[in-house]
Amino acid sequence: MTIRVLVADDQTLVRTGFRLVLDAEPGITVISEAADGEAAVRLARQLRPDVTLMDIRMPKLDGLRATELLAGPGVEDPLRVLVVTTYDVDENVYAALLAGACGFLLKDARPRLLVEAVHAAVRGEALVSPAVTVRLLAHFTGAGGRAKPATPLTGRELDVVLAVGRGSTNAEIAARLRVSLSTVKSHLANAQDKIGARNRTETAIWAWRNGLLR
């Protein structure tokens, strides 16, 4: 199955670079490009790509609002949006994650990491640039106070949530806990249902907000 990608960025050179990297990867194809936020939302809704690469600062409609319209709370059939930005400490990045982005990369990330991030997004395993993972999630530590789930997490569910908060993939978690991949997915799904998280990024944010990963 070919992974279909939409690239949204106001810089022609950036879009061309992403297209060259992704189109050269077997099983991935760039189906369209958007130079502004309005076009990104329109094309994403029309073409339903598997992953949309979204810049933050774009004309007409910024990437934050575009992400919210495609993947935010209340969207019936949300799309997978991966934010790719230059601003690793910009408050807009935090807002993008809260708006529904499944993760983010810096534009200077190596090509292999971009490919891995696209694959991870399709699997539901959001990938965040290693250089900013801890600093990004630490921003949420203590923000909004503690939020205990109505139904407590089991020990294994908590183990999986902590591992997700540290950036581990399902395969890595399965190997560490010595359980099957399907068991990890089941624990994660149950935990996310209990804490009200829609994706791995929100799961990690929940762990940091509750002081579990300081």
Automatic annotation (TrEMBL):
UniProt keywords, alphabetically: DNA-binding, Phosphoprotein, Transcription, Transcription regulation
UniProt domain Response regulatory: residue ranges: 4-122
MF annotations from Gene Ontology: DNA binding
Domain spans labelled HTH luxR-type: 146-211
GO biological process: phosphorelay signal transduction system; regulation of DNA-templated transcription
Annotated CDD domains: LuxR_C_like, REC_NarL-like
Keyword Phosphoprotein (UniProt): yes
Modification 4-aspartylphosphate, positions: D55
Keyword DNA-binding annotated: yes
Signal sequence, start to end: none
Taxonomy, superkingdom: Bacteria
UniProt cross-references to PROSITE patterns, sorted A to Z: HTH_LUXR_1, HTH_LUXR_2, RESPONSE_REGULATORY
UniProt name for this protein: DNA-binding response regulator, NarL/FixJ family, contains REC and HTH domains
Organism in which the protein naturally occurs: Lentzea fradiae
